Structures are given as structure tokens and as C-alpha cells.
Amino acid sequence: MTSGKNNIPKHIAIIMDGNGRWAASRSLPRTEGHRGGARRVKEIVKAAGELGVKVITFFAFSSENWSRPRKEIDMLMRYLKDFLGREIKEMEKNNIRFLGIGRDAPLPPALQAKIREAEQRTAGNTGLTVVLALNYGSRQEIVDAVRKFAGDVLSGKARISDLDEKSFSQYLYTRQLPDPDLLIRTSGQLRLSNFLLWQLSYAELYFPDKFWPEFKAGDLKAAIEEYGSRERRFGGIKYDA
Question: Can you tell me the distance from the alpha carbon of 39 to that of 26, in angstroms, rounded to the nearest whole number?
């Protein structure tokens, strides 16, 4: 089945799982898995733009990942900074807008600065929006949103009676974005892992067995075709005519 234009998800969220296992299966260090994963991001961004996707969000580093070995974390932080530095010009050239979501601290200041630079330099772009979730956890995001709302109530900027799902969403990190239509998690793992729990309430879920460094443009197209074949009801019921 080929997805029609109306069946293209506006927002795809991706949990890039399996970098380490991909490397281990080839007797390579885990760092090579992360490098292979970064190369795959470029291919998937290009394919998403060509297929008509409007927003694509990559789960790059969770708030729980700080428990990993220090050497691996330091390497990954440097690689993310260098990757953004290399890609800013490409994003400007290709009309891509970049956003980072997650808490700043304790990300290295140099990486925080590169994220802000990428956001500022691409803010006026109108094509595909690429979102990188770094030091991100959905529970912490919801807690941060509650704190912001409570602060607005205490300062008189909001009333408790004003709060509903729509207004609460404006306190989340993703307030500028539509909710994801499709979640892809590679490597066959069937978990959300504290990723966009509020925003994924009605998303379609897709769990390919391939490790992230193996996930190519054709696999993204297959995921979109599967999405297009599903009937989304958003809690309702479809009655036969």
C-alpha cells in the first residue's frame, strides 16, 4: 500500500534504540554505534522532508542516561556538539528549523550554547522542523509544567479554573509543536521509556526489529505506509454506513 498525501503523519517521534547492541554485534566499541546512529539521523531527516513530514523528533539522550559510564557520556556530549556545529549550515541551506527540548543542566555549557545557536540561526526557516530531545524525561517535563503553571497562579497570571488539557499543553517543552501522530522505536523494544507520555496519547506506535544504525529511508517509508493503513479513531467509534 502506498500512502497518499493525506496519510503522511505531520509529526513523527523516534526513539533511536540499539546503537550499542548494533556495535556489539559487530565487535565494535559502543562509540561506533553512536557515530553510526548520527549518520542515520541525517538520512532520515532528508527522507522525512522529501516525504512531506512537518516535524520529526529524535530522542537522543534521556534524563536517565546519566547513569551510563562517564567516558561514554563525555564522548556522546562532544559528538552531539560537533554534529550540531557541522549541520547548522545544512539546516539553513535546506530551510530546516531546529529545536532542542529537555532541561539544560547538567548538559555541558558548550553543547547548550550550540543548541541555542542552532535554534536562533534556523528560527525563521519554514520547512521541516527537527527536534532533538536531550536530557529529556517526560515525567520531569510534566513536573516542570506544573511548577510553571503554579507559579503563574501565584503571580496572578493564571487561575486554577483556567486549566484544561489545551492550556496545560502550553506549559510543556513541546508547546510550539503538534502532538506526534506516529512513534517509531527501533530494535524491537516495546517500551515508551518516559518519552513524550502526554503528547503520545493518541499516536500510532511502530516497533521495527532493526537497530537504529540499520534504519534507513526505505524503513521510514515502510513505517509511514503502515501508519497510512491504520484507522485512527481518537477514542471514538466508526459506524458502517
Answer: 17
